[in-house]
Amino acid sequence: MPLTPKLVSVADLLEGRCGQVAVGDVLAFNGVSRVDEFIQGATRSAISHVAILLREKPDAPFLVLEATGLGVTLTPLADALARYEEDHTCFYLPLADRCRALVDPAKLAAYYDANAFDSYNYEGVIQAGIYDLDHPLLKAFLHHFHGRSLRSRLMRWWYRMIGRMARVWAKVLEHEPNCRRLFCSQLVTEVLQDFKVVTVPPKAGLVVPVQVCWFDIYAGAYQLNGPELMPDPFHWGDGPPKRPGP
């Protein structure tokens, strides 16, 4: 199903006018900060960040589970959207019914407990596989942080001692600490894979934010703010237009 042709509001979402919100539903964001623009440019897309909804108890408020510069965090849904509304265009992607049936809310809450405030930084970079030579963002990193000495240190290190990758990326992240947001898509993909909602993507650490929006698992997509609907917000590279749908 394509992006709904009618712009809805955050209030519509919170008050159930977009349909019943559920654990496992996904949020996606387009942003204007340097980090957002870097991610969107590197992935040739309009999406720089994704997150997933969680509920600790059936009658508890919905929370946003995400990986940001603060690590793996939970934020009340209303608070998270209020923060993102200021400089992001927000999208709500509800899971299709067949996928919602696979989500175990208690297991998702346990995932947060096991990963709370993990930094998705130094060791997380290695775990995510961002250092792989075929990662879609590696060349963009090297171009963006184009100091000759940084590149040479990185490449010398690559051939000599792969186990020290975290220290090299620590130097990169000194320039843009919020680049840890790149791993938001790893978190969401890992969760969806764990529930068998997503069964065929590449390694979770190689999934970029917009790719999460392409998973064939959604009942639709809603834009929650902005002066008008974004044209084709889920475009990716040179491929034909594609929007979330069952």
What can you see in these coordinates?
- By secondary structure, the chain is α+β, with helices and mostly antiparallel strands.
- The chain has two domains: 10-118 and 181-223, endopeptidase domain like (from Nostoc punctiforme) (endopeptidase fold (from Nostoc punctiforme), Alpha-Beta Complex), CATH 3.90.1720; 123-175, no CATH class.
- It has helices at residues 10-14, 34-43, 77-85, 97-100, 105-115, 122-128, 138-144, 148-160, 165-175, 184-194, 209-214; strands at residues 26-31, 49-54, 63-68, 71-76, 88-93, 222-223.
- The chain has a six-stranded antiparallel sheet with strand order 4-3-2-1-5-6.
- Mean pLDDT is 77; it is low at 120-134, 145-149, 155-169 and 176-182.
In short, what is this structure?
This protein is of the alpha+beta class and 246 residues long. The protein is 38% helix and 13% strand.
